[in-house]
Design brief:
disordered N terminus; mainly beta; 24% strand; 12 strands
Length: 241
């Protein structure tokens, strides 16, 4: 008889009995449902502040005949923390738009909130037909957590030093003519009313910062921001007559 086969069969049977024997008293707990999880009241991370539009190409202006059409669309912001977990606590998100009208703010519920953007007077529509919308809120600047301990410490060196938010009309990443200033409290202006666009303060603004030299001693949090553009040109028809 094949003794090797008998040994293998015995081990297999033993394993099966072990699994069966643990079925009623498993050392592994069933993960809780979403309704059983505690609320996440954490700090919003710049890396998990996102904005999107229900209709990113609302089709306001038709270059074929020069006609305008009044439109509106929902703008939604989603928030998360440094660990990529959805923040379910209530946070206020503020909005500004290059052109048109937009709800000034909304309060997040279960990690997101929305406002409505709509068209306004057509005589000052942006020449490039691209409309920038900016959202900002209080949170922390993003950083790379090299040792994965949830802190920016002396083992870490890379972070995103954010400048003051602004509506970047041409989306070139530079505050220049045609852009709209959003004057808020920051590391270079603790009043939030200096009437000038402030660059980054050179330090990490985060309550999770423990670095010996790179943590801001002025503000442990900062206004973080994100922007997007709506394409207001009516798409050229691709259908063949």
């Amino acid at each position: 008889m094949n003794n090797r086969f008998i040994t293998t069969l015995a081990l297999t049977a033993s394993s099966l009995m072990f699994v069966a024997g643990c079925s009623e008293d498993s050392p592994f707990e069933t993960p809780p449902g979403a309704e059983d999880l505690p609320p996440n009241e954490g700090v919003i991370s710049q890396k998990n502040l996102a904005i999107g539009a229900e209709e990113p190409t609302p089709g306001v202006y038709d270059p074929a005949d020069g006609s305008f059409t009044a439109k509106s669309t929902k703008i939604t912001v989603k928030i998360g923390d440094l660990n990529n977990q959805k923040i379910t606590g209530a946070h206020t998100i503020y909005f500004a738009t290059e052109w048109g009208l937009i709800g000034p703010s909304c309060t997040t519920v279960d990690g997101e909130c929305s406002v409505t953007w709509e068209t306004s007077a057509f005589n000052n529509i942006p020449g490039d037909l691209l409309n920038t919308i900016t959202a900002w809120t209080l949170g922390e600047e993003a950083f790379i957590d090299t040792n994965d301990n949830g802190k920016f410490d002396d083992n870490d060196s890379t972070f995103e030093d954010r400048e003051e938010p602004f509506v970047d009309a041409n989306l070139d990443g530079i505050f220049n003519t045609g852009d709209i200033l959003i004057d808020v409290v920051n590391g270079n202006d603790t009043t939030g009313a200096n009437g000038a666009h402030d660059i980054g303060d050179g330090f990490l603004n985060s309550p999770n910062c423990t670095h010996s030299s790179l943590c801001s001693t002025v503000l442990t949090s900062s206004y973080i921001w994100v922007h997007m553009q709506l394409d207001m040109e009516v798409p050229v028809s691709t259908t063949t007559p």
